[in-house]
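Write out this protein's structure.
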Amino acid sequence: MMRSTNKLLSRIILLTIVSLATNLNAIAAPEPAETFTVTLVPSENGFYSIDPKIPADGKVPAGTVLNVTARPSSGYSLDAIYHTVKGGMWGTMSQESFSLSSKINVSKDMSIGATFVEKSLVENIKETLDVVYAKPGIKPLKYDVFSPKGAKKLPCIVIIHGGGWSTNNEDIMRGLARELVKGNRYVVFSIDYRWINKLDGEASPTYMHKLIEDVFGAIAHIQENAARYGGDPTRIAVTGDSAGGHLSESAAVLSPLIGDGGFGERTGVYQFHPTYMPKGKSVEQVRNEITAAVKAVAPSYGPSDARDFKMFIEQTNEEYWDAVSPVKHVPNANERTIPHFIVRGTEDPIIRHEVVQRYVDVVKTAGQTVNYVQVEGAGHAFFDWKPDAQTRATFTKYGVRYAAEMQSFFNNVFYKTNP
């Protein structure tokens, strides 16, 4: 009996020791570190280095800070150091830095690269980046300035980016900005604005009219500061693509509705209050200055009637839709002339020809000059500039040519001389 009891006790002790050892090993063994895959994109016309080096399998511990340094080849300048992750409206999102060195925190699977452009494209441009014009919510609203060196009293071109009113920022228009500065005849401002509804992370929605108010606020700020960049605040053209096409049309034809009466707060009253107001100026002064200064518009492949993009708008009443629809407010030419230059790709799957043609018909009926060009073979967003090779190739194929045509249109407005 004693021997049996001792065996049982020994077995219990052994099992206890094994269990304790197992638990101790579990406590001592650290959890495997989370890693993400970093893919390096080959570069052209320059190179970049990363410290610490990326392992052969691309697996990098989460939270690692990568120091990226770019070096352009002879005859080239840095366009951007970038990293791209999955997400956003178009499937991927890129963050870009315009310095020769940048720090990137590894928090997702990502691709890293650097792009370079010919030095001759940018060597005569003075770039002023991230000028903040207002902060009505979470994100600061800003614009970039592309000014010919030595510029004085040149007409200003304001570019408004697209992205479904819900993605992108002013960086995506830098390719178009550089093309429009060619010839040293314009100072170009590429502006950002709030995203629609709660996509900026706001607690309350940012409605469509607020985006238009951001555009008017940016223009008011640009007028106040144009001279420091060599621009003339009394001569302005606006352009934009896709959602920016709508917003550029809004800037051109809705400015007479700038006021302080509120937007839809009273029956029949829809007035835009600019997000930025210059000190010492009344809303009436700002309205008159913007209306007088905007002398031409070049909206690219954008919608003009809220009924064509009502899925982005929470309001369902038609009065609101009309108030944010440029097609409902085109002025008669004998009251105010606003020449239009409009482009759309024949293969655009997002903005149909009929959508643009309806606006063109209204503009013509109002007696305004309009040049509507359909770009054979082009799809949507060919004025965009992103770091991926396909977007840049599309811009080279279509954007460069039609930016030159747009500039020629602006030249006829601002530099045409009477015989």
